[in-house]
Amino acid sequence: MSDTNNNENWLYIIRNFLKPSRTIPITSWRAESTWGLTNGNQSLQRFLLLIFGLTVFGIGEAFLVVTSLGNSPWVVLSEGISLNSNLNIGQATFFVSLVVLFFWIPLRQKPGFGTLANIVVIAVAIELGLLIIPEVENISLKLFYVLFGILLVGIGSALYITCGLGTGPRDGLMTGLHYRTGVRVGRVRLGIEVLALTTGALLGGSLGVGTALFALFIGQSVAISLGVLGRLTSK
């Protein structure tokens, strides 16, 4: 009986620890402004967490690319735009970022240092990931790569968002809609990803099971990661 009770207690602790956050937690390293790279040691900690979070995010994206099972919805969208224009995928991605930034205006979102770092560090991290992540042929390993990549993207998102130095264009849209509507972070992110995926597919972008899994689980991955961070840093 005692073993059963202990197991139930552990399950309860784990469920509570992994409970998704309904909002963006306030952490000790959060900047007072989106360009707040001051205050000595705290500034260095914030900068390192930002770069680490963006790196984890980019490597997570690379795990999906390596599988060839389908990329994240935004890459599907960029590919769809490139197929219907003179833009390549890189240029289409830049175009999408500008359009998304335009939607920041009514949401009163402002870019910051993290917004610029997002564009550079994630791109470098993706290339690094493609260089060091071994390719696999086994479908079970590929699915593990996809799920692990989604986990990393969620963790990376939570880390750099809580730095308060400005989100990337897509995450800024997510947090802006969350603050303006009060809808849970995970649900907002899911809605955005599904919209990008649907539009990209209609434009002819390629997608697969990896794309579908990303769209379905990225919201919860971000929300759970935010919840864990909030509990680990709460006083």
Structural summary, described in words:
The chain has helices at 2-17, 40-67, 73-83, 89-102, 104-107, 113-132, 139-161, 169-181, 185-202, 209-233. The chain is mostly helical. It has one domain (38-233).
Query: Which structural category fits the helices and strands?
Result: mainly alpha
Q: Please write the string of helix (H) and strand (E) elements.
A: HHHHHHHHHH
Which spans of ≥5 residues are poorly predicted at pLDDT below 50? none
Oligomer: single chain
Helix content: over 70%
Proportion of residues in β-strands: under 5%
The major sheet is characterized as: none
How many domains would you count in the coordinates? Answer: 1
Distance between the termini: 35 Å
How large is the count of helical segments? 10
For the secondary structure, the number of strands is: 0
The best one-word shape is globular
Rounded to an integer, what's the Rg over CA atoms?
A: 18 Å
Mean pLDDT: 82
Topology:
Elements: H1 2-17, H2 40-67, H3 73-83, H4 89-102, H5 104-107, H6 113-132, H7 139-161, H8 169-181, H9 185-202, H10 209-233
Quick tags:
mainly alpha; 235 residues
Concise synopsis of the structure shown:
With 235 residues, this protein is mainly alpha-helical.
